[in-house]
Amino acid sequence: MARFYTLSAYETSAEDFFNALLEHHTDLVLDIRLKNTNQLCGFTKEKDLAYFIPKITGAKYVHDVRLAPSPALLEAYQKHVADWEVYRSRYLDEMEKADVPEYFKENYGKYQSICLLGTATKKRRSHSEALLELLEKEDNGQDNEPGTR
Known about the structure:
By secondary structure, the protein is α/β, with parallel strands linked by helices. The protein has helices spanning about 15-25, 45-55, 70-80, 85-95, 100-110, 125-140; strands at about 5-10, 30, 60-65, 115-120.
């Protein structure tokens, strides 16, 4: 069964970012950010990661917005209309309504070490944590490494 962990595209150096992927023997980096092309993304822009990840780590890079929060939900969280618990709960509802556990198995079930690339910062948590929780719950807790932020 696959191991899942989270990694943030923010507040990290390229060295720390790529070393984390190598240390986890990552074979899939699943970018679940809704927005990953603007200048604020730095070296973690979609185009750059699609090039660097396979070259540096040998892993596959996939940007899958189906696993991102809806734009309205993300905006509510970013503008502090919804706190973390509300955001997390609504995000999990969105994922369950979209049958994400089954979708995930069908599309990513062949990978062994999956990085869920999110947007956590020192001040803000990321939906990648909630997705990790959902995937581990579906996996019935079978020997997955604990998630990291």
